[in-house]
Design a protein that fits this description.
disordered N terminus; mainly alpha; Serine Threonine Protein Phosphatase 5, Tetratricopeptide repeat; 6 helices
Length: 139
Amino acid sequence: MKSLVAVLLLCCPLTLIADQGHQHHFDANEKIGTVHFPISCKGQQAAFERGVALLHTFWYDQAAAQFKEIATKDPSCAIAYWGEAMSIFHQIWDRPNDATLKKGLGMVQQGQKAGAKTQRERDYIDALAVFYRESGYAD
């Protein structure tokens, strides 16, 4: 038992050192890949694609902030609410609880109310609405 504790104590500093380069902000030189996801919101294409790239690299908090900024700048950008709702579903490490499902459903309903300008955007929003509505939370 003592040797197990000693090994664990030795490993802890190594994980802290390994995490020192891990940043929780991005700059112009960020390496998150490229995404092509056309949207109808004027002047928001690059910001939206950055948000989707952040989703695909599991930077959910940063993705949520990116989509929220788009929705703040352009409340009629319905697909931005879809992005926000996508960013609170962390499918790899936890199942959404009732509070998350309720919050996600509210976000996609905002997107539905905003009225997406293309059928493709409406389809994305409506598909996510089904997920949030039928995943256990009764609205």
